[in-house]
Amino acid sequence: MVVPAVPEIVEDEIESAIECRNEALQTIRELGPPDLVHLIKQLKSGGRQNGVYHHVTGVDASSSASLAAYVNTLVYSPTDKTNKVVSGLYCCYNAFSHLDMRVEVKIPGGVESYCIDERGDKRVASDGLWLETFLCAVLRAYSYADDGSGDSIKKIIGVRRFDPITSTEVEHRFLDAAERLFFKGTPKPCKTRSLLTLQQDLSSAQNPKYKFPTSSPTTSRQASLITYIPQAGIPLELISFKSFGRGTSKSPHS
Hints:
Number of helices: 6
Strand content: 15-25%
Shape: globular
Number of strands: 8
Low-confidence stretches: 201-219, 231-254
Structural class: alpha+beta
Radius of gyration: 20 Å
Distance between the termini: 33 Å
């Protein structure tokens, strides 16, 4: 696999990118912005510190450890022989709970994970919040994916993109999270479109024997999905509904 190059945007003032993200939390809608990775660097000989950042999509956001691992690849990168990384911060938006999940890596010093709400208050990052963040990160990676024209990528400055689903195991983890969380909150058209489109992509390209069980409209909550599918730009006749739940079978579509 070809690893994409790391872009770097140098800040005029250290942590200004983080401050801008904090201010934008109250206005974020739908899946939110790409992940933000912020580093504070210093010359190995000592002296003035500088803040740099880039955006990224497709990184495994299922836990604080996975995001810390990404930051560590930058901390110990052999390509920068002049500077050393003093600290790193990874920000990943959780669209379900409207929280910005954060992992802070200090060199030396360890790792701290937490989340910031729309008011800027610090909260504990639970396992349930990480599950939501994992699902959001995968959907966001596909929503920002370039279609080949280059138009999508131009909307983001300094972006590094990874394929969010690189194995059958990750695919199944995503589908399991989607099944568990799909009906949490209002099924907005954006989420509906992203999940159903990704279902078709995964099933046809990677694993034709495993498809996300969209739903069987047997309850009022599940039936509400039908209202949002046309709003998502997907004709109803293209969707094959089947059972949706823990005790049901997951036989493939014909």
